[in-house]
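Review form for a predicted model. The reviewer records the input and the model, then writes brief findings.
Reviewer: anonymous (R2)
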Amino acid sequence: MEVQAITRNVRMSPQKMREVVRQIQGLPVEQAVAVLKVVPRKSARVVVKTLQSALANAENNKQLKAADLRVKEAVTGRALILRRFTPKARGSAGPVLKRNCHVRIVLSDE
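Model under review:
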């Protein structure tokens, strides 16, 4: 049985988030949490929150045990991009793209 949790509109680029998310794919939940606790990145804190939310969904809604669960899928996707402009030389303006992302974690007991 599969259980998922999604965190939407995280104020971080998907590229930075993917580096952390790829580290936990296929791991048991306890091991994935342990790995993320020692990763010194802001994105790891967001992924841990999402993983714990998925774990709580599995335990409370589907009555599954945490010891049986594995991270089946952990992906991040693009969200809205905030477009800002900064002054450049000779009166022109340069774009600044502030990227956001969505994080989805799917746990499975298979």
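Findings: The longest strand covers residues 70-87.
Further findings: The domain at 2-108 is CATH 3.90.470.10 (Ribosomal Protein L22; Chain A).
Recommendation: see findings above.
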